[in-house]
Structure formats: C-alpha cells, structure tokens
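User: I'm writing a tutorial on reading structure tokens. Could you give me a worked example: one chain, its sequence, then its tokens, then a sentence or two explaining what the tokens reveal?
Assistant: Sure. Here is the example chain.
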Amino acid sequence: MFAKQSLRFDPLPLPHRSTLNDQQRLAASADFLNHMRQRHSVRDFTDQPVDEAVIKNCIATAGTAPSGANHQPWHFVAVRNPAAKAEIRQAAEKEEEKFYAGGGGDEWIKALEPLGTGVEKPHLTTAPWLIVIFAQRFGEFDDGTRYKNYYVPESVGIATGFLITALHNAGLVCLTHTPNPMKFLNGLLGRPPSEKPVMILAVGHPADDATIPAVAKIKKPLDEILTVK
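And here are its predicted structure tokens:
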C-alpha cells in the first residue's frame, strides 16, 4: 500500500471478471436501480438490536472503496453503548441549538423546512447503532513520521456511499447526520486530531409509524443529471 521505503508496481492478473452478457447486464442494472429506489433516509427508529457482524460486514464493504493513492483515509467508529450514544446526542443537540437559533443562516434553515428537521435528535439514542465516519487528513508511520493522504474528501465520500448502500442491501435503514461543528466527536470517541469527523450514520430498523418527508421522493429526472456526448 504505502511505506517509507521505495515501492514498485507489481501487476496482478485481474482476479474477478463479470460473466454477464449484455441482456443480463441490462437486467442487473435495472434491478439494482429499483432496489436503490427503495432506500430512504429514516428518522424514526426502533431499538431492535442489529447483529454486530452485520455492521462489520457493511463497514468492511465500505473499506473496499477506491481511494487516492490507495491510502484509504477513513476510520469508522461503530457505537452501540447507550451511554456513549447519549453523550453524542447531548453534544450534537447543543450544536443544533446554535444552528437553529440563527447560526445556520436563514437560507439554510428555510431549505430544511420541508424535511421537518429540528433541534431534537432522538434517533441518536434510539437507533441501535451509530457509525461515525472520520476522514484522516494524514497518516503516521510507527515512528510518528507523517505521510500525506490524497483526495481525502472524495475518497471518504465514495466509501460512505458504499456503506449506505451496504446497509440498505442488508435490510437496514440509516440517517445521515452532520451537526456543525463535530469536533466533539474526537474527544468522545478517542480519535486523534489528524482525523476529521464528517458524518454520523444512525443505523437500525424503521419504527412501525416511520414517515419520510414527501419532498424526499422528488428526485431530479435523468435528463437533468446526465449528459451523453
């Protein structure tokens, strides 16, 4: 991957190849599109447990994402301890109070109105798992020497997309939560200053009376997000 000594390019034969024909490929792409259209961000969770092995598999899937120079500049903290989740919620709601009191600006707050968000974040304590995603600004060798990571936001964003998709594929729901700022997460979770918290994912099962904002079903049509040359 990377080391202090010189490395060389060592090509390996491609270990996996698709065996689908054109018709099967089209069907597979359509099936996956329909599957992902069933994914929803959910704010109403039950406290029904989720096996740790499922969470580990989903995070391992995130770890297969491509990254700048293959440095894999991410770290995931999976939190299920009720006391730890309560601490995260308390700290997050303090930041949300400042945001909704005007810190976020009128335009941003108005943009959130159709989503029905507010200061209180019960999902942070009700959901059986919180996955906190950290971006590693730089890495360190065993002797403390730093090395640079590349395309960190892009790499972590791709890995997060893998994670959200894996959770959906496992039959779970999640909610992306980004209190601003999030520096409190480093202290609460014992992560070094070289890591920047970028997101909290609340993960679990939807409540029986779970709802989603109607506006969440409005997606841009393909001709607005695609140009073919």
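What the tokens reveal: The first helix runs from residue 22 to 36. The CA atoms of residues 87 and 188 lie 8 Å apart.
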